[in-house]
Amino acid sequence: MNTLEKLFKSLEKKKIPYCVRGRYKHLPKTLDGGDVDLLIEKRSFNEALKVLKTLGFHFYPHTKPNLFFYHHDNSIGLIQLDIILTKKFPKTKKYKSFFIPADGKTIPNRKPKIKRLQTGIQRRLHWFLRGPIIVFEGPDGSGKTTNSKALLNS
Q: Is this structure's pTM higher than 0.85?
């Protein structure tokens, strides 16, 4: 089960109202080169945030008024969640293992066009300037810390 499937299952288990706003036909098995647009009920966001943290998602702050979280999953790659909080939650229906708007139509992002462009540029620069991520995995005592310190000091 990939992280996206775990996210949907956890939100449903905790009864946190959410729906995928659009572009969902490929989910949850692949990302189809894009982000995942989620609508979450505003009053449930603190509980949703606990779920995101438990699953290892990181917050990226430069996307107001939307909230942007990301996590790397070994089976499907970089998961980018673009979250909009709402007081008025639409009627939803189950689609595969997650919820979508009951009418099947995309819920638009009401962020102004110039702000969406600015956000897109900031995100791309963020990923471009980060460089590669190196992960040391292994059981206790296998030398992860020793090797990472040796690499850092070389």
A: no
